[in-house]
Amino acid sequence: xxxxxxxxxxxxxxxxxxxxxxxxxxxxxxxxxxxxxxxxxxxxxxxxxxxxxxxxxxxxxxxxxxxxxxxxxxxxxxxxxxxxxxxxxxxxxxxxxxxxxxxxxxxxxxxxxxxxxxxxxxxxxxxxxxxxxxxxxxxxxxxxxxxxxxxxxxxxxxxxxxxxxxxxxxxxxxxxxxxxxxxxxxxxxxxxxxxxxxxxxxxxxxxxxxxxxxxxxxxxxxxx
Amino acid sequence: xxxxxxxxxxxxxxxxxxxxxxxxxxxxxxxxxxxxxxxxxxxxxxxxxxxxxxxxxxxxxxxxxxxxxxxxxxxxxxxxxxxxxxxxxxxxxxxxxxxxxxxxxxxxxxxxxxxxxxxxxxxxxxxxxxxxxxxxxxxxxxxxxxxxxxxxxxxxxxxxxxxxxxxxxxxxxxxxxxxxxxxxxxxxxxxxxxxxxxxxxxxxxxxxxxxxxxxxxxxxxxxxxxxxxxxxxxxxxxxxxxxxxxxxxxxxxxxxxxxxxxxxxxxxxxxxxxxxxxxxxxxxxxxxxxxxxxxxxxxxxxxxxxxxxxxxxxxxxxxxxxxxxxxxxxxxxxxxxxxxxxxxxxxxxxxxxxxxxxxxxxxxxxxxxxxxxxxxxxxxxxxxxxxxxxxxxxxxxxxxxxxxxxxxxxxxxxxxxxxxxxxxx
Lengths: 224, 425
Known about the structure:
The structure holds two protein chains of two kinds.
Chain A: E1 3-16, E2 19-32, E3 36-40, H1 47-54, E4 62-67, E5 70-71, H2 77-87, E6 88-91, H3 103-113, H4 118-131, H5 147-159, E7 165-169, H6 177-192, E8 196-201, H7 204-207, E9 212-217, E10 220-223
Helix pairs in contact in A: 3-4, 3-5, 4-5, 5-6
Chain B: H1 5-21, H2 23-61, E1 65-70, E2 85-88, H3 92-99, E3 104-119, E4 122-131, H4 135-138, E5 143-146, H5 151-155, E6 160-163, H6 165-171, E7 181-184, E8 187-195, E9 215-219, H7 220-227, E10 230-235, E11 238-245, E12 249-254, H8 260-274, E13 280-283, H9 285-328, H10 330-338, H11 343-380, H12 388-414, H13 418-423
Parallel strand pairs in B: 2-11, 4-9, 6-8
Antiparallel strand pairs in B: 1-12, 1-13, 3-4, 3-7, 3-12, 5-8, 6-9, 7-8, 10-11
Helix pairs in contact in B: 1-11, 2-9, 2-11, 2-12, 9-11, 9-12, 11-12
């Protein structure tokens, strides 16, 4: 299996004027294609920072980070945007749907920024909505949906650009346990279909779905 | 940078959606632009209308004409002596001298009095003008009916009359005036022609131009025969004033427009040597026209500055609301950035929203600006003239204002750190 994500000696330091905060220290790991990896750790351990780096929302202070053999740690802002839009899918704890837009419009956002044609966007978005079981809610607004349904929209949105990796940040954090299980089942199902899945969580019951658990503690990464 | 029309259309559509979401706020925001644009167009239309009227009036006087008028010298105006005979104004010597100037084509003298003109029981206050047949072409007076008097009428001092359009409608509301009799100071005249109505007759009296509609014209020789040389003003049966004025006006026709100013200066010098008192004045329509145009330019500059100020104020309003919008939608910006939007995409989105705001303000302003002059015309009876360029320019400026004042908030939006933006509550 090919390596899809590789970090080599990555450090992240926040320089807050008087204090230097070392958020990540010497992080080295790789994730193979099709893997399901959970990143666990207490708050303040640096897992959010790691997720931001993985998601190309931030650049490491030092070290190298490869996605599909492309080194992204030195890319320009526009190039990072392009990688986020084409190769990554984000799922957030708070769903992060845009309230003014309908379900199908929300799902289509990543395609919109890739310059897809209007019709393609609508068709692909509707298809994704059906895939996550929301085929009958296409023109609803996020506020008209339950938490679980909103997270399904977010999952559809993360999938619509056919990304290499799905990054999920506490995807069940705002859901009750039943709905949370449904969402996890959906994600695991996607992983079985071949999508690489990285979930950041502090919930052990969520982490147990993963093939591999990486633990963050005091800005360092440990693997069981 | 490639320009994708479809992409742009979608951005604009999404912009509309967001603006519609905050209808009241957006409406209040664009009010400044609306009033700015509307006032520019309306004020320009009113100004343009007024100056158009003035220019037309001046043109009516003839751009190759110089008009000399007899004037009562200021130091004699206060005279109360009844036996006093005021002698002033343009003289036959002046007429002869001006005719010798090579650039002068023609000098048409007139003699005028204000009188009541009668047709049976109907009467109308007219200005009776004694003149020569050359007066009509020199003043661009065309006839609607009949003919003008000719040299024969002049030589034989015939009692014929050409009447102005207003006179015709008042004295002969339901008749053809030709061949009818008109009585002035007990003398009867046969109407042989009716002057055509001039486009602006009856308006802009305030601009200082005569209303030619209430003129009546008779041969110069006829008026001498019928009315004599003296002009006597009576008040309550008492003679208040007796004047002897040989000519009231000379219409001096010059060969070409280039010669007008020089000829006018020459005439001025000539008259200065022969007249000891300032008992005449010179009016050069061409120079008045130039002055009118100069005044209009200044008016436009003043207007332009007012417009610029109001549009800047409107623009600041838009910038203010756009900054608020950026703060409100920080999280949305973060989401979009995470999902692949570049800084440029965010910039485009917010600039286009600002432009949509300002150009809808501009559009409403244009509509208002077109309607207001129409209302002014109806209520105040003023001529208004909406120039296409004023609409075009003020609208494009409103678009430009959105662009300029939208850029700063949009840059703020685009420069947001996606991580911070995503975490923003």
